[in-house]
Structures are given as C-alpha cells and as structure tokens.
Amino acid sequence: QVQVVESGGGLVQPGGSLKLSCAASGSIFSVYTMGWYRQAPEKQRELVAFITSGDSTNYADSVKGRFTISRDNAKNTVYLQMNSLKPEDTAVYYCQADLQIKSTMAIRRYWGQGTQVTVSS
Questions:
Q1: How does DSSP classify residue 113?
Q2: In which band, very low, low, confident or very high, does the pLDDT at 86 lie, cut at 50, 70 and 90?
Q3: Which of 53, 66, 97, 115: disulfide with 6, CB 3.0–4.6 Å?
Q4: Could you give the CA distance from residue 21 to residue 93 in angstroms, rounded to a whole number?
Q5: Rounded distance between C-alpha atoms, residue 16 and residue 13, angstroms
Q6: Residue 101 burial by CB count (10 A; 0-12/13-18/19+): exposed, middle or buried?
C-alpha cells in the first residue's frame, strides 16, 4: 500500500524553472535516501540527484549549479528545484524513495510513475 507520487512536471521554456515534488505515503516506518532519476527518449535512465536522511546531497554533473534537491521529512516528501532549464533536461523524471515498511520492516526502493518535463520554446 506504499505509494510514491510525483508532481510538478510540465512544459517550460529554456531558461525557465520548474519544481518537482514527490511524496511517499502509506505504512512507512522510516524514509531513507530519496532521489530523482530521469530518462530521455532512447537514452538510459540516469541519476539526477539524491539526498540522504542526513541531508547529504549528490548531483549529476550535468545539473550541478542549476538543480537543488531538498526534503521535508515530516511530509515524506522530496523536491527538485530546477532552474536555468535546458532542452537537454527534457525527460521523464522518476522519484526514488528507499522506504522501510511497518508491516515487514523491510527496506526497499520504491519508484514513482514519472512526470514529464519538457523544455522547449
């Protein structure tokens, strides 16, 4: 019954900004690392950024200085603030959350269904 849902995708012009949100819900005991991946057409899925439960962050070189990942632990939510967007940022963005479930206490990686980000004039 655990669910990971992204929101905030859409169409934006080059140089514009967009903020993605991803909320994990359900019978969650603990939330660990959360992150964002993206996949452009005919390209491999790549890590964009992740943030640990201790707020340590890592970014792909292609987005450093432009994107910022953050989290709200009280809401089990991770955000991705995307600034200075480029056409090459166009992709489906997937939220990833490492969650410990109450019923089993198992820690597994969960994925959202993805949200489309299109950067075009």
A1: -
A2: very high
A3: 115
A4: 11
A5: 5
A6: middle
